[in-house]
Amino acid sequence: MLRLARFLRPDRVFVALVLVLTFAQTMSSLYLPTLMSHIVDTGIVQGDVPYILRIGLWMLLITVLGGLASVLASFYAARATAGFGQRLRSRLFGHVERYSLREFDRWGTSSLIVRTTNDVMQVQQLIYMLLRMMVMAPLTALGGILLAVHTDPRLSLIIVVVLPLMALVIYALMGRGLGFFRAIQTKVDGLNRVLRENLTGVRVVRSFGRTDHELARFDHANRDLTDTSIRVFQLMATLMPVVMLIMNLATVTVVWFGAVQINATTLQIGQLMAFIQYIMQIMFSVMMVSMMLFMLPRAEASAARIDEVLALKPEITDPRVPRAPAPGLRGRVEFADVTFQYPGAEEPALHGVSFVASPGEVTAIIGGTGAGKSTLLHLIVRFFDVSGGSVRIDGVDVRELSQEALRARIGYVPQHAVLFTGSVADNVRFGDAAASDAAVRHALDVAQAAEFVAALGGQAGDGLGAVVTQGGGNLSGGQRQRLAIARALARRAEIYLFDDSFSALDYRTDARLRAALRHEIKDATTVVVAQRVSTVIDADRILVLDDGRLVGAGTHRELLASCPVYQEIVSSQLSPEEIA
Hints:
This protein has three domains: 310 residues, ABC transporter type 1, transmembrane domain (ABC transporter transmembrane region fold, Up-down Bundle), CATH 1.20.1560; 170 residues, 3-Layer(aba) Sandwich (Rossmann fold), CATH 3.40.50; 71 residues, P-loop containing nucleotide triphosphate hydrolases (Rossmann fold), CATH 3.40.50.300. 64% of the residues lie in helices and 10% in strands. The protein is built from 19 helices and twelve strands. Helix 5 runs parallel beside helix 8.
């Protein structure tokens, strides 16, 4: 928790103002019972009306000033905590953005979302309470005790009994609640995960008639969270009546023994009234502390989860002194005896893979499911680092380049086309924010997307302003793929990586797109991962992967004559006439 306090530093002036104003508010509330006792014991008893009016006006002024201090303290506390939350969320998001895929897999998307939103909110609420209460509650309690002792030392012995009793009750309840608060955050993760999976996979759920199963799964996670929350709220509900009982008993005891002293003329009525108010202020300050203590375990659990995210350093980092590409080269990709193994896997995904992809050539990669085709592209983009060997761009190991400089040279089309909420133009400009409308239209035209985009309409009349919903849910799979290809083309990169990016296209569109690409990116290094032989048949070089090993390299005809794995793939997709 203390490590996160550094995010309050930019608002330290507001924090200081909150402390000063809260101190003023507390002093005003402590002074009012003393003035009230003077009114009763001097003004009312002696019938001195001017004295009553004078002290009454003075009480009114102090009340107004105390109220103003309270309002301003709340305002500045809200400013400080809102800034804290904004900075912490930004830091979390920026830190997570630097994660490699390995770190993403460790936490999971649902947990990262909860940590960035719900957990930050829990810590933010606690800090607001601390700013408002950490001065008020202790100062009120201490001031109330001193003034109560000053008013009547003998009655003050009641405080010696009451305060330890209240502390014992709070400690007992807090000890039981700590584990529950930690469990709640984990169960919120689980509920969020089930909800997110159901909403993102709603088409699959409905198509397989698994709605009842998903309802049961959500109900189980929901009940699990609810049961734990109920136990926590039961503890909190127990605290209030117990504390109020102790407070009321303390008040009755004070009145009882105070009446005895008034009857003995050792205590005045106004003093008794002031003493009762001091007792109430002391008890309420203890209650405020108990409220903070109930928030503390949950906020501590949230702070620990946030610290876990911030403390996890990305495995893939930039070198201290990034190297520059060798002169005279432009996009040459070289794999030198590359081996890669996923964390926890028994076997490497790639074994000793070596090849060169040169500018102006199309290098295609084909193989069965799980052969390591997509993994190979991920190593070029440096989503992962190799376990052995090296991947070089223009003679420089990708680990010696800055990630920004490396990826600025690459136009990457992922296996699953991911689009963002916005317009068609926004999604294409994701590849190059400075791309003109003409460049966007050209990229759409090459990607064979211009026709369906024009049909979408939009503010510009050519579909560039047409809305793309979250994840491209209002588009077909083939349309999403073509927009993803247009996004990569807008970058005008030196290296283009297509990860099975034509799988949702019909054969006619596939052929037209490949013909347009051949002319558009003829000078760039192009690496194409594909499942269909028709997609790779015209490539300058075809690499055949089998179980993570490179078992063949050459043109279509060369592999037909020399590579059994390629022969098997071709025979499963093409007829004998097409092969001939």
